[in-house]
Amino acid sequence: YIFNGDFVDRGRNSVEVILLLMIALILYPSSVFLNRGNHEDIMVAAQYGFQDEVNRKYRTCKTPLLDLFKDIFSWLPLYSSVHTGKSKLIIIHGGISDCINLEKINSLQRNRYVSMEVPPESKSGGKRLTADEDDEYCQIQDLLWSDPDPHSRKGCRHNNERNIGCFFGPNITEQFLNKYNYSMIIRSHQVKQKGYEYTHNEKVLTVFSASNYCGGLNWGAIIRWDYNEQEPWLISYKTELVEMKTLSFNKQITLFEDPAYQSLLERIMTNKSSLQKEFEKRDRYQTNHIPLKVWSEIMTNVLRIDLPWLTLRSKLVHEDKQGILYNTMFDEYALDNTKFHVV
Question: Is 39 an annotated catalytic residue?
Answer without folding.
Answer: yes
